[in-house]
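Onboarding guide, step 5: your first structure request.
Type a short instruction followed by the sequence, for example:

Predict the 3D structure of this protein.
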Amino acid sequence: MVSRLEVMENRHFRIFIIYFCFLICSGLAAQPRAAAGLLDLRELNLADDVAALDGEWDFFWGNFLVPGSNPEEKGIHVTFPGAWEGIARSEGAFPAKGYATYRLRILFSQDQKTAAFHMPIMGTSYRFYFDQDLIASNGEPGRDEAHSRPDFLPMVTSAVAIPAGGEAIVTLHIANFHDRSGGPWQSIHVGSQSSIRRMRENLLAVDLFLCGALLIIGLYHLGLFVFRTKDRLPLFFGLFCLVMAVRSLGEGEKYLLNLFPGLSWTAAVRISYLTFFVPIPLFLAYFTYLFYRESSRLLLYLTAALSAVLSFIVLLTPVKIFSEALPVGHVTAVILGLYCAVVNVRALFHRRIEAPIFMIGLLIFAFTVVNDIALSYTVFGTRVLAPFGVFVFIFAQAYLLSTRFSRAFIATEQLSMNLDTLNSELEQRIEDRNRELNRTLQSIRVDLSTARKIQLGSLPGTDGHPGFSIASLYMPMQEVGGDMFAIAQTSGRRLRCCLADATGHGVQAALITMALKSEFENLSPLHENPADLLKALNAGFCEKFKSLNVFCSAIIADIDPVSLEVVYASAGHPDQWILNGNTGNPLMKTGPIIGMSIASKFTNGRVPFRHGQMLLLFSDGLFEQLRKEGADFGEEDLKNFLTSHNSSEPRDSMKLLSQAVDASLDGQERKDDITALAIGYDRNE
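The system replies with structure tokens like these:
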């Protein structure tokens, strides 16, 4: 669907094109033409208007007639202006190299007292006479190359007096030995001094206007490219405009020669040819990137290579050689124009937004180029229109690029507005989500607090065990921990203690140890010794939790007051200790960690236990917490620490451990769950 912006853009552009074409066509009024060497201007008021000396002139090949001599002598009639190598004769066409005389009788109005002429560039040197008076010349026309000097510079002659009868003869000696084409290439105009100068000023104004417009547009788009190098359209378009700006000064009234008076004829011709060959690949590059889906990159590379070859020929060879390359450039321009038209039509079918504007500008530009090419070959054409075509085309492309930037800016604004809306909605969503998360977090905190209370409530008390003094330390890393301990009384006054440490932390580990504690309480009455109980716990653990890939270390110790010994079984648990003054006996592992295999085997160990000794059971979090930066703190270090602070009273030992743990924390979080159980035997009970 075509947007309202696109409709307005196309409407404004069409209005401009119609107005511009009207301005061009308004200057194409019909004027008298010469016939059989005679031009009748008696009905034309030259005070306000100018006339082109176009039509049939007398032509004398290979001869410089003396001005004013033999006025009745008739040469062949040829069309003026036009290159003489295109003139047919019985002996064949005239060669490009040579010299000739053009002559024309002019009838002026009786009211016209003086006349002035606007002399264009010619190929490639001339002398212009009004009756017998030499009034303009460029270079030095001679009868051979050695005596000829090419030059061109448009000029306005001084006013000359018209004879009393109103009839005058103008004679043009012209020679060419340096270019591929010879003869008068453009029209000579006659009028009053003021009208001719006004015409000259208007032509210069057009050239300078085109140069200024192209220069500004080119620099503007190069500036756009500098700030956004990813988009190459402004680069190629800007370079194309700059080269065409230079060409606008080197063509037409050749204002470039006024800016650089010392510029030689050869250098000026080189600039003219280079500014024709170089813009071709620049234009095609711009076109290819504009319609990249429909265009051929290979053709662009081939055109660039051809342009480079032609440009090197212009730079390295004399004019009479490199001027022969001009038809190659003309043919290339025509072929590329047809190619661009075909691609543009494809882009129209693909509904490319840029296609309609580009097509209008291209058609006008192509028409003016074909007109000027045909004019240079004297096929058809009445005036040079390429400057107007260039301006319309450049304006069309600048308008096209501006609409692209406008649409991009509007899209950016829309995206910005959408982003602001999304940000507002996102902020609201984040706020709602934060409230929801806070509610969920609060609920989790409440649940964890409840779970902590449940877990702490499930831990056994240390009182009510005659003959034993018991103290405990329980510090979970989080709200709930993965450590647990249990105390049970068995037959024969034995005291059974269990301490377990599940892998991991938090809720998962807590659930594992709670399940293990429940299993311990259920299975403990059924087994007489710790090894059998660990085997039963391991079998149940493997069966229930084999898919969770979790493990648990544990130690079960039976304290027998009759035999005065500790019977224990350790499932991968760190070495535990029976402390006696400054010494200690380790309770080492007697089997693998719980959960490794249902077929795991466990054995019992026996260690003497007397009055004044203390059994210390703990999880590995205790010595991990006491480990200092860069130094290990293992089971042996823990034993040394406890024996160096000797106390046979369990409560004093737990208080000592608690202080050591708090000192090691120094305001930081715990590294692991910490659990410890100290049991002393009182023989007096």
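Each response can be followed by summary notes, for example: Residues 386-458 form the longest helix (73 residues).
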